[in-house]
Amino acid sequence: MIAKIIIATLFTAYVTSVNANLIRNASFENVPDMSSGQGKMPSEWTATNSTPDTYSNDGSYGLSPSGFGNFNGVTAFDGIRWVAGWSLADERFGQLLSDPLIVGQSYTFSSYLIQAKRSDLDNMGGYELYLTADTMGDINAGTLLGSIGPTTDSDSWEFSSLVFTAPGNADTLPFLLFKPFGDVSGSAYPGLDNVNLSLTSVPIPASVWLFGSGILCLLQIKRPI
């Protein structure tokens, strides 16, 4: 029984590490203060170009959903806050990862998106994802991972995901950057919430099985009389 518990614990720990979210403050709930206005970013997040915004259901930080008519009637997908970047102003933002991605490893990024409600911003859009060297967010010296979106003509939050392989220079590019894009109809200002970046699920490696089997064998050895 003890052996089974130990092995189960090992496997659980492995699965948990694979599924762990590598992004901090992933739903933008933690904020540095209670200030209001444009260009505010949640804790752990950095604006790298122009002034992306944070929205709070109650207007307690950044902007309220009704601010400038941008998100009338919208509430956050998770918690009370979300962020948005305007594609026309190229409002980029991102986060310095605690550790660079592992070269050659497969990752899954997922998030929820919603279109702005103001008529001139209510266009399909999303975000391109880049790895860059630092918080300056120079995409010309970075690597494009792919994109999430575009949104559809929907009044609700939409799930979007991207599976990618960390490029050969990922160990020198620890900053994950979001660059908004629109479509032929016009610029977009997509809301973003509940972001997740984790290792793509992979089979339990042989080393874990062998280690667990070794512990099982040791526990089954009985002390001689």
Feature tags:
225 residues, alpha+beta, five-stranded antiparallel β-sheet, 2 helices, globular, disordered N terminus
Briefly say what this structure is:
This protein is α+β, with helices and mostly antiparallel strands. 15% of the residues lie in helices and 28% in strands.
Can you walk through the features of this model?
- With 225 residues, the protein is an alpha+beta fold.
- The chain has two helices and ten strands; from the N terminus they run αββββββββββα.
- The strands form two sheets. It has a five-stranded antiparallel β-sheet, with no helix packed on it. Strands 2-3-10-5-8 form a five-stranded antiparallel β-sheet.
- The model is unreliable at 1-17 and 206-219 (pLDDT under 50).
- Give the termini separation: 23 Å
Gross morphology: globular
Cα radius of gyration in angstroms: 21 Å
What portion of residues belong to β-strands? 25-35%
